[in-house]
Amino acid sequence: MTFTFLGPAGTFCEQALLSLPGTEAEERVPAVSVDSALAAVRAGEVDAAMVPIENSVEGGVSATLDAVAHGDTLQIVAEALIPITFELLVRPGIERLEDIKIISTHGHAWAQCRGWVEANIPGVSFLPASSTAAGAMGLLDPECTYDAALCSPLVSQNTALRVLRQGVEDHEGAVTRFILVTRPGAMPDPTGSDKTTAVVTMTDDHPGGLRELLDQFATRGVNLTRIESRPTGGGLGQYFFSLDLEGHLNEPRVADALAGAHRMSADVRFLGSYPSATPLASKVPAHASSEAYRAAGDWISRLRRVGRGED
Ligand SMILES: O=C(O)C(=O)C[C@]1(C(=O)O)C=C[C@@H](O)C=C1
C-alpha cells in the first residue's frame, strides 16, 4: 500500500501513521496539506492518508472536518491517538530565549503552546507553517527569516537542530486523534469496540432540530463521543454536524440510529466504522443490544405472520 500524511518527515501525522502495524515497511509520501493528502487519495495516487481530526486542547481540526464532509466520499478505516509534547528548536546562532523574535509552527501547535511562549518570551511573533516539522526544517535554511520552531521531539532526534526547551506545551497530557482515510471500499469488521463517523446536514432551521437529531442516538442507546457544527459555506447560520459515535454500522442500534438521522435530515454522509483506539466509554443498554433488536424483530415478524393468517 501507499500512504500519505501531512509532511514532511517528523510531523505528528507521520508518527500516527507509523504507530499502525505494518506501515513502516510501506511506501510513505509526504503531503503539503491535509487537503492535498485527501485529494491524493481521491485521485487514486495513494491508497490512504493519515490526517489529524481532533486535539484534546484545541478541538477539531477544521481542515480535516471540512475536507471529509465535502467532495467525493471517503472512508475512515482506522484511528490513532498520539500523545503531544512540543520542543522549542532554534536556528544556528540563537542561544537564549531573549534572542527569539519570531517562532514558526502549525496553527494547532501554536494554540497549544502560546501560553508558555507569552510567559517566557513575551512579545514574540507567530509565523504559521504548513506543519510543525515544516516549520522546524525551515530553520536549516541559511536564509531562514524566523528564529525558532515548535515541533515534535522526533525532529531533534533526526536533525542537528538545537533544542532550547522541552515540554513547552500549556497542557500536559494532550492527545491528538488521527484518522486513516481511504476511498470507499471494504469496511473493517466489527471488533466489539468500534467507532463510527458521520456528517449530518439538517433539512431546515427550526426549534429543537438538534435535539431531534440527538434523540435518534439517545433512544437507541448510542453514545456520541464528538459532535461539532461546521459552516456549510452556504451562508451565515448554515451548518452541518460532524459526529463520532460508539458502535459499528453492523450493529442494529447504530444502523437504526443512522437511519433515523437519515429520515429527518437533508443528508447523512457515512464516513466509516472502524476499531476504536481506546476502550469504549459507555456500556450498551440492554434494550439496545443486538440480541434485543433480534428478539424485537422476531416478535414483529410473528405478529405479521399471524396477521396474514400464516401462524
Ligand atoms: O504539524 C504536525 O505535526 C501535525 O501532524 C498536525 C497537527 C494538527 O493539525 O493538530 C497534529 C498534532 C498537533 O496537535 C499539532 C499539529
TrEMBL record:
Organism equals Galactobacter caseinivorans
Matches recorded under InterPro entries: ACT-like_dom_sf, ACT_dom, Chor_mutase/pphenate_deHydtase, Preph_deHydtase, Preph_deHydtase_CS
Q: Quote the pathway field.
A: Amino-acid biosynthesis; L-phenylalanine biosynthesis; phenylpyruvate from prephenate: step 1/1
Instruction: Identify the residue position(s) of the site Essential for prephenate dehydratase activity.
Output: 176
Is Signal set as a keyword in this record? no
Q: Please write the reaction equations for the catalytic activity of this protein.
A: prephenate + H(+) = 3-phenylpyruvate + CO2 + H2O
Top EC category: lyase
**Entry GO terms, CC:** cytoplasm
* Start and end residues of each Prephenate dehydratase domain: 2-183
According to the UniProt entry, what is the EC number of this protein?
4.2.1.51
What is the name of the protein in this document?
A: Prephenate dehydratase
Answer whether the UniProt record assigns the keyword Hydrolase to this protein.
no
Which GO MF terms are attached to this record?
prephenate dehydratase activity
Q: Which Pfam families match?
A: ACT, PDT
Domain of life (superkingdom): Bacteria
Which keywords does this Swiss-Prot/TrEMBL entry list? Amino-acid biosynthesis, Aromatic amino acid biosynthesis, Lyase, Phenylalanine biosynthesis
Tell me the ranges covered by the ACT domain, including all copies: 198-275
Q: Which biological process annotations from GO are given for this protein? A: L-phenylalanine biosynthetic process
